[in-house]
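Progress against Task 2.4 (sequence-to-structure conversion) is shown through the following example record, which the project officer requested during the mid-term review.
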Amino acid sequence: MLISVHMPKTAGSSFQATLAAHYGDALKLRYEDKPLHRSAWSRNFDASVSSLRNRGAKSSDGELSCIHGHFLPLNYRFAKPQTNMRFVTWLRDPVQRLVSHYHYWKRSYQPGQSGPLHQRMIEEDWTLEEFVRCKELRNIYSIFLWGFPLERFAFIGITEHFTSELEDFGRLILQATAVQKELNRNPDLDIERDDSDYVVSEPLRSAIETVHAKDIALYKRAIAMRTQRLKEAR
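Structure tokens generated for the chain above:
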């Protein structure tokens, strides 16, 4: 069983298409949790209860299966047998991820369908600076990884190196070629190009790095883990 945690704005939609190409009908999508539109108490409590409920659950042994979406991996942390359950996710430079998230929400709002926090942002016409400092959106990686150690992931892809990382994912996790699919990409940016980053002023970057310090630290750890992975593959 592969548990794939889709962090917002980390090429998770493209990765979903890759998983669909590999797993077909055995892929299950889980997007109903909506962690960012719930209180910390609510999402953490439900994930904790689910984790206990799944303690005796068993992953399927006979066929390929995968769960992918926006949810806390804590839900499945204690499911058994753990040796047959692997967790994967993707992380992106928190500064770029946050700016991308802001612009995505600005252009994708759907009245009556988007979550309450998204609605609040649009109705109040937040600036990027206001979005950056929104309490509910601080340290999104840390929100998703509550109660779940980074080292528990069998693979953490780095979005800035999507193509080469996808090759590694196929080799290490799927043990097959991972088909690259591109969906939901901002047409003005190409994450595979070195010059594709959003332009961020130094004062804003400094503010983001301060307000989102936990995510900056997590990203640096993920980079170090990738460096070690590449070193071991030589």
